[in-house]
Amino acid sequence: MTRVIVIGAGPAGLAAAASASAAGADVVLVDEGERVGGQFWRHHPDFTDPRLQHQLGRFGTLRAALGSVRMLSSTSVWRVENFPLRVHVLTGPTDAANRQGETLEADAIVVATGAHDRVLPVPGWTLPGVTSAGAAQALAKRDALTLGERTVVAGAGPFLLPVAQSIAILGGEVAEVVEAASISTIVRGWGAKAWQLTAAAGKAGELGSYVASLAQHRTPYRFGSAVTRIHGSDAVEAVTVQRIDPQWRPIAGTERTVECDSVALGHGFTPRLETAIQFGCEISSTRFVTVDSQQQTSVAGVYAAGEITGIGGADAALAEGEIAGLAAAGIPGADLRYRSPLAARRRMRAFAARLDVHGIRPGWTAWLDDDTIVCRCESVRKASIDEYAGVSSRGMRLATRAGLGACQGRTCGRSVEDIVGACQPGQGSDSRPVFDNRPVLSSVRIGELAALSDLAAPPSPASTPTTVADTPTTDSAGGS
Amino acid sequence: MSISIRFDGDELQGRDGATIAGVLLANGQRTWRDAQGAERGIFCGIGICQDCILTVNGVEGVRACQRPACDGDVIERETSA
Ligand SMILES: Cc1cc2nc3c(=O)[nH]c(=O)nc-3n(C[C@H](O)[C@H](O)[C@H](O)COP(=O)(O)OP(=O)(O)OC[C@H]3O[C@@H](n4cnc5c(N)ncnc54)[C@H](O)[C@@H]3O)c2cc1C
Ligand code: FES
């Protein structure tokens, strides 16, 4: 029997586990969350307002299909190996000191580790009351909470819509939704067929409910604008909303002040590539895992599905997961079972391609001050990044400490790359040093590693208890 | 069902099943960590940024957004120099 390990129990991982299991494979599904569902179906049985959940029928079907799957919740993958394929996991309460270690072996692996919010720095973004848009959504779904009473939701992309709706459903006021793409860019990008495309992708109902919710609450939706400053002494008191040009440079003289006590920022998503990188999977120049038509990566036996292969939403993740699960279980490509998920994936890719109109433009760095903190963990300011813009990514880390804190550059990595790019005009994005490339998979305590003495030697020691590597164990792939 | 946890000596009530961040936020506590002199609390909400870490029952570096609160938990602030 083919042994398949699926890493990540979001839409992609659930679909992969279900299809692999239905195809006769012996499946283990691993996720560090307490419950299956990932970001899209994040829930708590008692707290989550059903109005915040979409496609619950599909979720129920997938959960029911996990009957013979071995499910490891509250389990973090902290290390993986090729030849043979091995996954090292730790099970137990988050960041507890003595979680249980286990090593799993497989004939095939599906990596479905999803994505996290990309948040662009802005003066004042470390003030209490500022969160990522995803955090606002996660808090709403998981703990039925809004962070403040009056929130500005700002950034780029359609994800701002469900975030605003969730806050409103829980009784919070959304002062404004601020979208960076201009209305003309959106119309040009989505084209006259926007509604048809949305309908084809099955998104029309969901979109309609968000628009209705905004209208019902009379929430202003500003296009071609950004939050360029967050004000407050001890916590958020107001934001400056400013018009921006097509390159996202702020337009002087268009500033408005909007009072609020919280801000939810989201400028798109960035994939959680650590597992795929450790397997040695090829990563594209746009920084997603490269896969073939069956979701197979460049590494034999390793498949990838969902947001780590491209940002396309839950439906794309479901289709890719189903394909990856079948392939991992050894079902040949000509099999009829691929037909429906392949069609869904085609449809969803057409939809996802349109998301480009909300893509980050390089002019955003113009809203930073020299004093703006870029790396939150180490409180590294923009002036320091500018000063070392000419050195390698490793040199940058060592000189400024940007990316060396507890999050290992997960929050600041891409922003540092953009700032360095802005300092080196004339260089294409492909020739910039890659700063966002982490050898460390997830937080592990040194004590836990010591207890796992039969496993491979640990990476370099930590100065904080929650991360293994405080200094980079390898230089980043593209370090110039 | 209600649980109670201690946060820097104060007793806070929370709903059974909530995260530690959820209990703190529901009690009006928006920050619980000092990072180089600035207050921090929840930022990414999904375990990525490590801005929300605190000490739980003597164990440092626990992400409040990922850890379910248990009755009797003793929570302390952390300071990063
Ligand atoms: C915070 C947040 C909230 C979102 N909310 C919504 C929403 O409400 N509506 C919407 O349409 N879209 C939402 N999205 C977009 C969402 O990412 C996708 O549409 C969808 O969930 C992607 O599915 P996926 O299976 O690729 O990844 P995910 O759903 O992200 O699932 C990935 C899973 O992998 C697990 N994982 C990652 N690394 C490890 C590891 N090392 N060890 C063990 N497990 C690991 C994670 O715990 C997670 O459960 C959200 C995104 C984010 C970041
Ligand atoms: S808020 Fe980012 S790790 Fe908890």
- Unreliable residue stretches of chain A: 426-430, 457-480
Structural class of chain A: alpha/beta
Average of pLDDT of chain B: 94
- Give the CA-based shape of chain B: globular
* First and last CA, distance of chain A: 46 Å
Question: Radius of gyration of chain A, rounded?
Answer: 22 Å
Percent of residues of chain A in beta strands?
Answer: 15-25%
Assembly of the depicted chains? heterodimer
The order of strands across the largest sheet of chain A is 3-2-1-7-18
Can you give a write-up of this model?
The complex is a heterodimer of chains A (480) and B (81). In chain A, 29% of the residues lie in helices and 19% in strands. Chain A is of the alpha/beta class and 480 residues long. The longest helix of chain A has 16 residues. In chain B, the strands form two sheets. In chain B, strands 2-1-7-5-6 form a five-stranded mixed sheet, covered by helices on one side. In chain B, strands 4-3-8 form a three-stranded mixed sheet. The model of chain B has no long low-confidence stretch (mean pLDDT 94). In chain B, a hairpin with a 2-residue loop joins strand 3 and strand 4. Chain B is mainly β and 81 residues long. Chains A and B meet through strand 9 and helix 3 of A and helix 1, strand 4 and strand 6 of B. Bound molecules: flavin-adenine dinucleotide and FE2/S2 (inorganic) cluster.
Please name the defining characteristics of this protein.
heterodimer, A: 480 residues, alpha/beta, 5-stranded parallel β-sheet, 19% strand, B: 81 residues, 3-stranded mixed β-sheet, 1 helix, 9% helix, binds flavin-adenine dinucleotide
